[in-house]
Amino acid sequence: MHELSIAMNIVEIANEEAEKANVTLVREIDLEVGTLSGVVIEALEFAMDEAVKNSVLQNAKIKIRKVSAKAKCLKCSTEFPVEDYYTPCPECNNFETELINGKELKIKSLVIDK
Amino acid sequence: MCGTCGCGEDNSIRISKPGKENKLHHHHNNHNHTHDGNEHSHDHSHQHYHDHSHSNDHLSETSEHAHDHHEHHHDHSHKTEIQLELDILQKNNLLAERNKGYFEAKNIIALNMVSSPGSGKTCILERTIKHLSKDIKLSIIEGDQQTMNDANRIESAGAPVVQINTGSGCHLDADMINKAVKELEPENNSILIIENVGNLICPSMFKLGESKRIVIISITEGEDKPIKYPDMFRSSDICIINKTDLAPYLDINIEKIKEYALHVNHHLKFFEMSAKTGEGMDEWYEWLKKLNI
Ligand SMILES: Nc1nc2c(ncn2[C@@H]2O[C@H](COP(=O)(O)OP(=O)(O)OP(=O)(O)O)[C@@H](O)[C@H]2O)c(=O)[nH]1
Ligand SMILES: [Mg+2]
Ligand SMILES: [Zn+2]
Ligand SMILES: [Zn+2]
């Protein structure tokens, strides 16, 4: 259940940002979660339900953008979509690849009333 | 519940040394929590989840998830968007960097051992301590949900140790290590080995400030473990394949484990060993000695 820790981290950051902006409620929060970030979006949503209670996010709309993972072949530089770490390059069959997307675990923005 | 570890309130983090089990450290106290100043009631259960309407369509790229029962529309007010681009794990990452700086300043090599429960982490440590403590200053941080058992085993083996009990938490984080290190006070020019909570999933996301991460797989776990739990193998530097003494009794191909692991992470370096018989451990000892120079 590390999604709960992740959710609490999100709330903590939102609280700090709201304080900086001098507001007590956040209207919307935009998150970005990569498909290989280690976070299951459904589990994160479930955890957020619990974590937002009595926080600046209690009424907020929570938008989660899923970022599809993409890898790059270290031999021939082909870029291709992946669902795991061990898909070989479709061009040269090489397993040595580098992820260029998919690890995202970010708060993109907050919307506040001001 | 605690934001850092996801543990329940009544199930707080404990940091203790063998023989001083009463020394409680309520992890949450020193912690800047989101809900600071807010009454945070825990009597509501997860049932409420079913009460609100989820407007998210899991097939779509963006899922929206509105708490309709709370929503008010203040159409008169102005909306302001604050761009953040912040890593959600930044707090842990920053603390991990701080731990790392502390270790580097004291020339302490910190190793983070991760695995499924029961792969043999504590056995490997016991043997390593017995074999190496005359050459290398070793100290250990043990992470388990409950009990002092592993810390007691390490103490008997002869190394300074601090136990972290995470309660219901499923991983160690940088804050816990920060506090445990203050209890442990590892010596300069030493090696600190952290045995993480037995769990192949969650610890992969939480850096502790280690210089190397070591994943342990025992050959009883099946050849395809590395591709079933790729994050842990992806984020590790070293892979120990343990319980090789059992190979004659199992239908398992160790080369196949390595092949799968390399598909997930082609940088992995392997050690094959039996913590039971000691077979194959010399190479591991030599590697540790080199780290310590
Ligand atoms: N046959 C065999 N058994 C082993 C070996 N290493 C450990 N074991 C056994 O595996 C079991 C678990 O060992 P531990 O060292 O407690 O494993 P662990 O990874 O520390 O377990 P947790 O801390 O509970 O996650 C014990 O019964 C050990 O005796 C080995 O190399 N060969
Ligand atoms: Mg153990
Ligand atoms: Zn977890
Ligand atoms: Zn290629």
Labels describing this entry:
heterodimer, A: 114 residues, alpha+beta, hypothetical protein PF0899 fold, three-stranded mixed beta sheet, 2 helices, B: 293 residues, alpha/beta, 9 helices, binds guanosine-5'-triphosphate, binds zinc ion
Biggest interchain interface, per-side counts: A-B, 56 and 68 residues
Structurally, how many domains make up the residues of chain B? 1
Number of helices of chain A: 2
In CATH, the homologous superfamily of chain B goes by the name: P-loop containing nucleotide triphosphate hydrolases
Q: What ligands are attached or bound here? A: guanosine-5'-triphosphate, magnesium ion, zinc ion
Structure at a glance:
The complex is a heterodimer of chains A (114) and B (293). Chain A has 114 residues and is α+β, with helices and mostly antiparallel strands.
Question: What does it look like?
Answer:
The complex is a heterodimer of chains A (114) and B (293). Chain A is α+β, with helices and mostly antiparallel strands and 114 residues long. Chain A has helices spanning 2-21, 41-51; strands spanning 28-34, 61-67, 70-73, 79-81, 97-101, 105-113. Chain A has a single domain, classed as hypothetical protein PF0899 fold. Chain A has a three-stranded mixed beta sheet with strand order 2-1-6, with helices on one face. In chain A, a hairpin with a 5-residue loop joins strand 3 and strand 4 (79-81). In chain A, helix 1 (2-21) packs across helix 2 (41-51). The longest helix of chain A is centred in the N-terminal third of the chain and has 20 residues, at 2-21. The model of chain A has no long low-confidence stretch (mean pLDDT 94). Chain B has a single domain (84-291), classed as P-loop containing nucleotide triphosphate hydrolases (Rossmann fold), CATH 3.40.50. Chain B has nine helices and ten strands. An eight-stranded mixed beta sheet of chain B has the order 1-6-5-7-4-8-9-10, with helices on both faces. Chains A and B meet through helix 1, helix 2, strand 2 and strand 6 of A and strand 2, strand 3, helix 2, helix 7 and helix 8 of B. Strand 6 (105-113) of chain A pairs antiparallel with strand 3 (79-87) of chain B, so a sheet runs across the interface. One zinc ion (ZN) binds at residues 170-171, 202 of chain B. One zinc ion (ZN) is lined by residues 170-171, 202 of chain B.
